[in-house]
TrEMBL record:
HAMAP family: PdxH (MF_01629). This is Pyridoxine/pyridoxamine 5'-phosphate oxidase. Pathway: Cofactor metabolism; pyridoxal 5'-phosphate salvage; pyridoxal 5'-phosphate from pyridoxine 5'-phosphate: step 1/1; Cofactor metabolism; pyridoxal 5'-phosphate salvage; pyridoxal 5'-phosphate from pyridoxamine 5'-phosphate: step 1/1. Keywords: Flavoprotein, FMN, Oxidoreductase, Pyridoxine biosynthesis. It catalyses: pyridoxamine 5'-phosphate + O2 + H2O = pyridoxal 5'-phosphate + H2O2 + NH4(+); pyridoxine 5'-phosphate + O2 = pyridoxal 5'-phosphate + H2O2. Residues 177-217 form the Pyridoxine 5'-phosphate oxidase dimerisation C-terminal domain. One of its GO terms (molecular function) is pyridoxamine phosphate oxidase activity. GO terms for biological process: pyridoxine biosynthetic process. The gene is pdxH. It is an enzyme of class 1 (oxidoreductase). Substrate binds at residues 13-16, 71, 128, 132, 136, 196-198.
Length: 217
């Protein structure tokens, strides 16, 4: 018997008591409220407050999820970067519908975006790529993301080889590296509440306006 066998998983629970979310707390557009919550997550010194779960679907309808860092946001959408040969990028080539989830559970909050992913322009990608630490730029060249490798040593050896190659010069932008802007059409804000009476508000785009509905927990 391992330690997990001794834990009653069904009994693991706690009360959510950090406060509620009321309609008076909402903004007319979701990005303003998201900005406020993200700032509060940063001020609370949460680990990786910009980390989001990115969900895509393959050609068979199988969903996949992974954690990616948010790099920019505004009313146009949320931005992240990736290897264009990665599994998520391949999924988005066939189905650009996407879901983003921010699990700020230390603040008893969640935010969920749904929308479509659009490729960023080469200029946007180049600007961000050269703002990264040089070792991160080199790592983008070293890793063919999602491809099978037989050992970690192969990856490390390739990184050291490229580090030597680019030690005295600028690292060029790989043709296989890019980014996406998630143009969102719905956003849900979730705030934990006592007795499982959580507060949920859903923003849905209708033309140039946002319609807001309270959802039952």
């Amino acid at each position: 018997m391992n330690e997990l066998d001794e834990v009653d998983l069904a009994a693991v629970r706690r009360e959510y008591t950090k406060g509620g979310l009321r309609r008076k707390d909402l903004t007319t557009d979701p990005i303003s409220l998201f900005e406020r919550w993200l700032k509060q997550a940063c001020e609370a010194r949460l680990s990786d407050p910009t980390a989001m779960c990115v969900a895509t679907v393959d050609e068979t309808g199988q969903p996949y999820q992974r954690i990616v860092l948010l790099k920019h946001f505004d009313e146009k959408g949320l931005v992240f970067y990736t290897n264009l040969g990665s599994r998520k990028a391949q999924h988005l080539e066939h189905n650009n519908k996407i879901s983003l989830h921010f699990p700020w559970y230390q603040l008893e909050r969640q935010v969920h975006f749904t929308g479509v992913a659009e490729r960023l322009s080469p200029i946007e990608v180049l600007k961000y790529f050269h703002s990264r630490p040089k070792d991160s730029q080199i790592a983008a060249w070293a890793s063919q993301q999602s491809s099978r490798i037989s050992a970690r040593g192969i990856l490390e050896g390739k990184f050291l080889e490229l580090k030597q190659k680019f030690q005295n010069g600028e690292v060029p932008l790989p043709s296989f590296w890019g980014g996406y802007r998630v143009v969102f059409n719905s956003v849900e804000f979730w705030q934990g509440g006592a007795h499982r009476l959580h507060d949920r508000f859903l923003y849905q785009r209708e033309g140039d306006a946002w319609v807001i509905d309270r959802l039952a927990p």
